Amino acid sequence: MNILRPHISTLVVALGATALTAGAQELRCQVEVNSQKIEGTSKSVFETLQSSINDYMNENRFSTATFSPTERIECRLYLTVSEYEGDRIKGDLQVQLSRPVYNSTYTTTLMNFKDTKIDFEYKEGDPLVYNETSQQSNLTAILDYYAYLFLGIDFDSFSPMGGQQFFDRAQSVVQTAQSTGEVGWKAFEDTKNRAAVLSSFMDNNTSGIRRLMYDYHRKGLDEMVTSPDKGRAVITESLKEIQTIYKNAPMSVALSMFRDSKLDELVNIYSKAPQTEREEAYELLQPIYPTDIERLEKIKKGDEGN
C-alpha cells in the first residue's frame, strides 16, 4: 500500500486526500565531496565517491511513498574529507533539508546539521547497493540513515507525526550500526552524533520537536501567505515546544538544530509583527540561545531595528 504525502501544490485539498503520481524517487539530493584538504592523492577516488553517493540518494527508493518528479524532497549532502589513508575516509558531513512553502516561491529549511563523525571504508569503484534489510557498509548505513531522517522530518511537516515509520527505519539502521563498532552510532557517545539526533525525535522529553515541525510549517508558514497574522501566531505558539525541550533536556541536539535552521528565518517572520508578538518570541528564545543575542535582538526590534 503506497503512502500518500500531500504535495505542496495541492495543500488546499484536505490532508490525506491527495493522489500523487507513482514511479518517482523520493529525494532530489545535491551531493558534493570536497577533498581540498587531501594532498598528493589522485582526486578520481573522490570524484567517483561523489558520483556514487549522488546515484545512491537519487536513484534508490527508500519507501513505498509516491512522488511526482516536481515534488521530490530537496536535500543536500556536503562531505568534507579531512583524512584519507588506505581505503579509509574521514571527515564531516553538512546535512541540509528544505521544503517549499505553500503558494509561494519561498523555501524553508527543515534541517541544517553538521555530522562530525564521518568515518568509512571506500575503495574506488565499489558499488553502493541499497538493501532495506541489511547494511552493506558504514557508508551505506550513513546514507540510509539520512534518507530516512529526511523522509521522517518532511512527512512530519505535512501531517502530525506523519513521519513515524521513517524514524522507525532510521532507528533500525542505528541499532544495527551500533553493533559494528563504527563511530557516530553509539548512544551517549556524545550529544551530537547520529544516535543523539535520532533520539531527539524519538525520546518523549524532546519529541515535541516533531509537533513543532507540523505546527510551525503546515499551520504557520503555509498559512502566512494568505493570513500573516494567523500563521505567525501559530509559529509563536509552536516556539513553546522549544522551551519545553530546553527544560527537559537542555543539552539536546534538537535545540542547536532548530537554531541553525530557524533563527534567521524568525527574524524575517517577526519583522512586521506587533511589538507584543516580537517580545513574546524574544522572551521564549533568549534564555535558550543567550549567545545568539544579536539575532534575537533583531527579532525583538523587527523592522524598527533596521
What this model shows, in words?
The protein is of the alpha+beta class and 306 residues long. 44% of the residues lie in helices and 16% in strands. It is built from 9 helices and 4 strands, in the order βαβββαααααααα. The chain has helices at residues 44-59, 138-158, 164-178, 194-202, 208-224, 228-248, 253-269, 275-285, 293-301, and strands at 27-34, 73-85, 88-100, 107-121. Strands 1-2-3-4 form a 4-stranded mixed β-sheet.
Number of strands: 4
- Tell me the strand percentage band: 15-25%
As residue ranges, the low-confidence spans are: 8-23
Output the strand order for the largest sheet. Answer: 1-2-3-4
Give the overall shape. Answer: globular
The helix tally amounts to 9
Estimate the helix proportion, in percent.
Answer: 40-55%
Give the biggest sheet.
Answer: 4 strands, mixed
Q: What number is the mean pLDDT?
A: 91
> How would you spell out the order of helices and strands?
EHEEEHHHHHHHH
For the record, give the distance between the C-alpha atoms at the N and C termini, rounded to a whole number: 52 Å
- The Rg value, from CA coordinates, equals 20 Å
Report the structural category.
alpha+beta
